[in-house]
Design a protein that fits this description.
Elements lengths: L2 H19 L9 H4 L2 H17 L5 E5 L7 H5 L4 E6 L2 H10 L7 E5 L12 E7 L7 H11 E12 L4 H12 L5 H5 L4 H10 E9 L6 H4 L5 H15 L7 E8 L1
Parallel strand pairs: 1-2, 1-4, 2-3, 4-5
Antiparallel strand pairs: 5-7, 6-7
Helix pairs in contact: 1-5, 3-11
Length: about 250
């Protein structure tokens, strides 16, 4: 079984379990606020970029939408959102969570390496943690293809530069929670530069040089205080290569 099929089966089964026991609710879309404070900053910045760059009635494509953890902030902009994922079961959860947005939301099973949309269809393309689930160059070209001239790309994802985070991801692979291809495709500074060569970089932020310390420090200190320490340290050192996450906004040339 190829990695793409493994990931599809993994997420289909996870979503099917949620559907069968009803263990999801309307607050699922408040993912960034449900996180422990030391992990929140990149996702809150991702939401801020939605507010800043998405206009009411824009056509927005979300790739790798999963069960809709980040879909709410897109819908709250008033935009028309197409949430896509390779897992149909995950999209069924999105429909249930966001049924009050039925006039603004549609879902479609889609492989991000071959998006089933015409050229220059969308004003904005968003991705939260999904870039490693497709071939980097193919996905970048597909995003460029479906995006209108001067369209916006908003991404939050993990950065694969810090050795501590790389080791942790390999541990996840050996435990069976990650596929090999997702490790090899994890975004790097080189990939961000390649996107920057195809698009124009409008905003770029890095977060979490000390996130690996969170499980230890939160045993002794309040999570909110730990989060503030981490954010201040990132600002002090102008974190980049040692970052855990990044948020970037591109504009199509």
């Amino acid at each position: 079984m190829i990695d793409k099929d493994i990931e599809k089966l993994r997420y289909d089964n996870r979503a099917l379990k949620l559907l069968s026991n009803g263990s999801f609710d309307k607050d699922t879309g408040l993912f960034s606020y449900s996180l422990s404070h030391p992990y929140r900053a990149p996702y809150l910045r991702y939401r801020d970029m939605h507010i800043k760059f998405i206009d009411n009635n824009d056509n927005v494509l979300e790739i790798g939408a999963g069960t809709g953890a980040h879909t709410r902030s897109l819908l709250e902009t008033g935009a028309f959102v197409v949430a896509t994922d390779i897992s149909n079961n995950s999209l069924q959860i999105i429909k249930k969570i966001y049924k009050e947005y039925s006039d603004k939301l549609s879902t479609k099973v889609a492989d991000m390496e071959s998006l089933p949309f015409n050229n220059e269809t969308f004003d904005v393309v968003c991705s939260a943690g999904s870039l490693s689930y497709g071939d980097n160059q193919v996905v970048m070209n597909e995003i460029n293809r479906v995006l209108k001239p001067n369209g916006i790309v908003i991404i939050v994802d993990s950065l694969n530069e810090n050795p501590l985070y790389i080791i942790n991801r390999w541990i996840g692979y050996y435990r069976g929670t990650r596929s090999l291809s997702t490790l090899r495709r994890m975004p790097t500074l080189k990939l961000i530069k390649e996107y920057g060569d195809k698009f124009n970089i409008k905003k770029l932020y890095f977060f979490g040089s000390l996130t690996w310390l969170s499980p230890i420090l939160t045993l002794f200190l309040k999570k909110e205080f730990v989060g503030r320490i981490f954010d201040s340290f990132d600002t002090l050192i102008n974190v980049k290569r040692s970052a855990f996450k990044f948020v970037v906004v591109f504009i199509k040339k």
